[in-house]
Amino acid sequence: MRKLLLLFLFLGGAVFAGAREQWVTGHVFICGTMQAMPFASVWLLDPQTGEPEYAAFTSVDGWYDFGNVEMDRAYLLKVTAPGCETVTKKIKPRYDANVQPNITYNIALERTPDAGMLMPATMYVPAEIAPDAVTIEDVYGHIPGVIYEDGFFTDANGANVRILFNGYVMYSSSYEELCELVTAKDIVSIDYYDLSDTDSPYYAGVLDFRVNIVISDGPENTELPIESTFWDI
User: What residues have CB less than 8 Å from 16, skipping those under 6 apart?
Assistant: First the structure.
C-alpha cells in the first residue's frame, strides 16, 4: 500500500492578524476517552462582538491547527461538533517565547444524550457517478447535490463543503503529490457527511474521498488526552 505522510497541515485560518503571535494547534476529543472528534469547528471569537477572528476544522484524528494566533488578549472559544454539546468559554492565550514549535491546546467535548455514530449521509462510487473519470479531479463535477466551481465545493444552498482524503485535509504540494499518486480508479468511495444541523459549523458538509493510501496530518495521540485549562479566564 502506498503511503503519503502529511505533517502539520493547516486546517484553519486567521481572520485577524496581530503583532505578538504564536502557532496554536491541538486535539478535540470526547471527555474521559481517547476518542478523537472529527469534523469539529473550532472558533476564536471577539468576546465583545462575537465576530470570528480565527477558525479551524478537525480531521478524523481530532487534530486542528489555527496557525499563528495573536497572544495576550481575550477570546471567546467556541467548539461545536456533530452529536456533541457546544463548548463556549473565555480564554486568554499568553505569549511564551520558550514554547516551540507551537502551543498545544486540547479541548474536551461531551456527547449529547441522543448522539449516535457519526455516519455519512450518502456514499458514492466513482465508477457509477463518473465512469469515464481518469484523475481525482475528473470526479469533482459529478457528485450529486454538490456544486464544484473555481476550486470550491458548495451544497445546493450555496454553503461551503470541505473536501477531505481518508478524513484528512490537504493543501498545496501535498495535494499535488496525492493527485500524482492516485487516479479515479483508486477512489474506493466518496462519503458525504451532512453537518448542516451542527451548531455554527465551519462547513455545512464534508466530502471524504476514501483512497487506497495511508495519510496522516499531525502527531498521533498515544495517551489519554487531558483538556488544557491554562488559558481559561
Answer: 53, 54, 70
Residues 6+ apart with CB under 8 A from 183: 134, 135, 136
Q: Which three cell numbers stand for residue 212?
A: 487506497
Alpha-carbon span 103 to 232, nearest angstrom: 14
Give 232's Cβ-side CA count (13 Å radius).
9
Segment 124-178, tens digit of pLDDT:
999 999 999 999 999 999 999 999 999 899 999 999 999 999 999 887 778 888 9
CA–CA separation, 226 and 34 (whole Å): 10
Give residue 128's identity as a one-letter amino acid code: E
Cα separation, 224 vs 52, whole angstroms: 30
* SS3 of residue 202 by DSSP: coil
- Alpha carbon separation from 43 to 16, 132, 184 (Å, rounded): 12, 40, 34
Distances 84 to 70, 160, 195, 196 between C-alpha atoms, Å: 28, 21, 12, 14
| pTM as predicted | 0.87
**Exposure letters 46-78 (e unless 16+ CB within 10 A, then b):** eeeeeebbbbbbbbbbbbbbbbebbbebebbbb
Place of cell 454539546: 85
